[in-house]
Amino acid sequence: RPDASSGAWLSLLLPVALAISYLHSHTTTPACSTSDALHLYQIVIAVGTCLKTLCYLLSSTLTTSVIFKWLINRLPGFVTSLCFALQPETNWPLSFIAGFLITTIYQYVYNSVMRGLPKTFTYGEAAILVQGLVLFVLNATSRIYALFALQAKPITDFGQLNAIMQSALLCLVLVCVLLALVPVLRKPLPFYLLMGLLLLAVTCAPVTQPLPLQALLNFILNDSKRVYVIVFYMFLVALTGATVSWQLGSSTQANTRVRKIFHLLIMLVFVPGLVYQCALLYIATGVAFAIFVVLELLRLLQMPPFAATLLAAFDSFKDVKDAGKLALTPFCLLIGCSLPIWVTCCPCGQSDQLNPSLLMLFSGVLAVGVGDTAASVVGSKYGRNKWTNSTRSLEGTLAFIVSILLSVLTLQLMGILDMTQGKWFATVFAALNSALVEAFTDQVDNLALPLVFYILVGLA
After folding, report:
1. pLDDT in tens, 173-211
2. What is the pLDDT of residues 2-43, one digit of tens each?
């Protein structure tokens, strides 16, 4: 991405977040330890892909022999293989094959993304997204295998929703791969036929008992509160559409404060969802992400009759970081707020007690929805004292910190968060450091800030 640093440090965030999630699950929710093996494998893969990114960047900058560069690029595969082999009851030859294969696939996908979407990502931003994609595909594939080969059908509501979301997103990944490999599918008729097949697979794939569509309807209709929350979500969708229509009618470029409306809207989605309907919010994040991908495909492939409107909306709301073809900031806003839910083991906790992971789950909402929004609004209107080597203001940074601490205090007084002295210390520490990252980074903060905040409050 033009006028941005490499952002290599971002590749460290996902492995550290997964490790924090693993340690947190053992201290607060020991019932989640049944998925220990899978979680450990995810950490190993994340570490391996992180090393692959760092070694790739190192070898590309060194002016040394080809053999030495080759050894540097083989190091991540060796480390990943060794970590796999150290797991109990592991086949050593298979571990070494898996380690080198996974890091090689990651590098191939990483290079394809950087070349296929020029000027869209920094090296670090692409690393986070490709790390997440590789982890998701491997995780979803293993769970789908367990569903069909081992006949391990999920029985809990969350288990069924997880199976539905993972199978649906895996089908969406396959559709994107087909579109990339088969040019004829990018024409309107084949494209819409492919979308119809995708919808059929998502609603009728035998990953749950009953089928996904019926299981989802049963889940929603069995609780009147869920119906109310969905109605509220539909109202927010209508409000979002009205905001976009209003901005398009004004024929001007949306400024920073207008774009922050979407931060407030996503905060209104996540707060009641996390507090009252965590499982519903979990599936909703998957649905929203899938809709974002389909809309972006319609825009990029210029599919009638939607492409013109989507292109106008993108041009009106795009940020300086949307330098490439992809609408990066809205994707990262959704992903950033959702990542704490996606990487946390047993995110929805127990229904009869306060969720001990709730503060960590609020990381995206607090860092992006509250802190970043307050910093942007206050900084753009009242910011007078700029940080050295930064366009951000001291006033905006103070607003970032104060808004987060007041929000956490409000949630505590409402009985939503159970704050201890250790959690308060971690929250203050996380707010201070996230505010400094927001002030000085040139990376997409919607992606970086939630993970930074998640890691630091997870230390409590």
Report:
1. 999 999 999 999 999 999 999 999 999 999 988 888 888
2. 888 899 999 999 999 999 998 887 776 655 655 677 888 899
Residue 174 token pair? 């396959």
In tens, the pLDDT along 433-444 reads 999 999 999 898
- pLDDT of residue 350 exceeding 60: no
For position 46, what pLDDT does the model report? 95
Question: CB within 8 A of 395, min separation 6: which ones?
Answer: 378, 379, 382, 383, 384, 385
Task: Give SS3 for 393.
Answer: strand
What is the rounded distance in angstroms from the CA atom of residue 444 to the CA atom of residue 124? Answer: 10
Quick one: which of 424, 429, 418 has its CA closest to 456? Answer: 429
Other C-beta atoms closer than 10 Å to the C-beta of 41 total 20
Cis peptide before 210 (omega within 30 of 0): yes
Pick the closest to residue 429 from 348, 347, 359 (CA basis).
359
Q: Do residues 37 and 142 make contact, with C-beta atoms less than 8 angstroms apart?
A: no
For 96-126, give one letter per residue: b (16+ CB within 10 A) or e. Answer: bebbbebbeebbebbeebbeebeebbbbbbb
pLDDT tens digits, residue range 145-158?
Answer: 777 776 666 667 78
Burial string for 337-373 (b: 16+ CB within 10 Å, else e) reads bbbbbbbbbbbbbeeeeebbbbbbbbbbbbbbbbbbb
Token pair 């977040």 in the structure block, residue = 17
Helices (H) and strands (E) in the chain, counts: 19, 0
